[in-house]
Amino acid sequence: MTESPARTERGTPVELTDLTRVYGSIHALDGLTLHIDPGELVALLGPSGCGKTTALRILAGLDRATSGTVAVGGRDLTGVPANKRDMGMVFQAYSLFPHMTVRDNVAFGLKMRGRDKAARNRRADDMLDLVGLTEHGGRFAHQLSGGQQQRVALARALAVEPSVLLLDEPLSALDAKVRSQLRDEIRRVQLEVGTTTLFVTHDQEEALAVADRVGVMNQGRMDQIAAPADLYANPATPFVAEFVGLNNKVPATVDGGRAQVLGVSVPVIEGSLSAGPGIAMVRPESVTVAEVGGGDAGNARVTSVNFLGPISRVYCRLGEGDGAIDLMAQVASSLATRLTPGDPVVVGVEPTAVLVVAAP
Amino acid sequence: MTGSPSVGFRVFRAVFLLACVAFFALPLVAMLDFSTKIPATGERTFADWQALVTNDSLRESIIVSVELAVLTVAGMVLLLVPTMIWVRLRVPRATRLVEFLCLLPLTIPALVIVVGIKNVMAWVNYYIGDTPLALTFPYIILVLPFSYRAIDSALSAIDVKTLSEAARSLGAGWPTVFVRIVLPNIVGGVLGAATITVALVLGEFTFGSLLNYQTMPVEIAAIYKVQARAAVAAALASIILIAVLLMLLSYVSRDRRTREGRATA
Are A158 and A130 in contact (CB under 8 A)? Predict the structure, then answer.
């Protein structure tokens, strides 16, 4: 995980207050409150149906909140229609107008604002330059790849100099490599123009990589919003701990702000069980695996090894029978390649802080 | 498997194509032959084709039918296109109902519809006068099933919701979304619906006849009893007109694709 680059503060603050959205008996949003600082990029992360897209669509004016308010730059936009909100949006589905050239697509928002043709084309070319598609101005959408189409959609959204940029899972339809490139490009462009941005995604890697802050949503509510590193290291709820990153659930005993996990004393993070037996959420990279030799039985056995390139995941079983604990460790592939299922190993945990929750 | 087709297959293909061409072309050639030949002498004459413009009642009926075709196309487009776009965007749960209503005329015999709307037509005539152009209203109903299908296919080929939301987020109002975003992307479907409408209106007999209006098919049927060659000439002319319309439609669609393709060069 890399540290976020410095951001500018040319954007506009956004305030969503106590938003609810009810569809029949379903509460898509259940009292969502969110503040976004000027120029900040906030990612809303969560599983399907958690309400993140609903929140974005309400901010865009494409959906109506059952209750609650939307304010941008201190102005209440709750009842303002989408075309009067001055926002730019990139959609999950390819949304370029098929009958227009790339340049006309990018200039469309400016045309709606009454800019003359020369100014429109100049701005459109600048935006295409920003996303590296200067040469493609005369093409049509069907002549571009998916990644190029989303770049044009980004240029189109930014051409109108929106007060807020909304990104609704813009990378979902792309393959892994293009996705990663465009993700970095979105962040670069966002930092360059300094527009306040709300990025909705279900991909935690995407959210952690580009956002200043990541909000994890669950059942229409914000479970936690924090900087990516903070969110990863200090999950506030079991849901956040499980959704962001992978976890091992290991029996632990808490006493005096520390927990005994696999015989190692580790600090507990805020929101943990205060005392007594519980379940510690241990990150795979905090689980250590050591080879044993000379007939030593170790304390666990390897059950499988997943090679992922520079790192690998090693699955081990600690103990036998009903009390056995299955653990997943993330280790260097140089070690993992020497391990095979059935090998005895010694597993432990590093003394990093963990969230301990009550046992179910 | 690749490679050029065998000689046998090529012969079969050529024969099959010729058979198809003959199947469609022979009746037309026969119509042309019948309408231009004096049976007694075997001489050729275009007198009956000239009747299309010189025979007052036939000429007037052709004008009425063309006017009806234009008005029906306009009415159908104005009624159906905004309704279908609106239903897709704002009330998708009404899709099935609208589809059912549009397809309904297909399931009811024209004769039954005519009997049903006869009283309504009396009111229409009361308000707009006793003009054959009043047939526009029942004709719009008559063409709904075919037009609906053509426009529905065009709408299904694009993501109307996302395109309109993208346009709205960029500052476009609903009229702009309709006219500048959705309509240009369903032009093919609308043209298809218009062509079908023209074909239907130019060939419609039941409504015109039972409601006592002298439309082209009604006039052709009447002339056929006394001047068969002129009637066949009029029928062939209407077929040629519809064929030309279809070719124009195909040309317009191809021209759009060519223009878009040229942009890559």
Answer: yes
